[in-house]
Amino acid sequence: MRKSKTIGTNLEVPLDPNLHKPPEWLSTSQKAGWEYAIARAPKGLLKLIDSAIMTIWVVAEDIHRQASEELTREGLTVKSVNGYQIQSPYLPIMNRQAVLMIKASAALGFDPASREKLDIQPEPDPNNPFAIFS
After folding, report:
1. Predicted confidence (pLDDT) at residue 9 exceeds the cutoff of 60
2. Which of 11, 55, 89, 130 holds its CA 20 to 30 A away from the CA of 72?
């Protein structure tokens, strides 16, 4: 059985400040995706070593979104040069990016099963008057 990494609420594990900065070469929408993920990741989860996997997740999420938007605009099928209805070329792009996102999410601890293995304690809600009892 694998041991869990415990990050308790009493232990302050700061986020590596270098991870806050997305790679310069990312597009504007990818940088926004990076900042969105960093802001919502549990404290102490991500380290600088995770930046490559984080980049994979961010780029895959952006391409997935773009393909999804095109798929919504064009529909599931398009006409080929021969006039036959064929599957939209955006569908396999979207599906492939979803697979990459799922794999990167598991590696980063973004999915529920991965977080469960880490045993990350939720941060107390400052607006919850009953939080002191938990």
Report:
1. no
2. 55
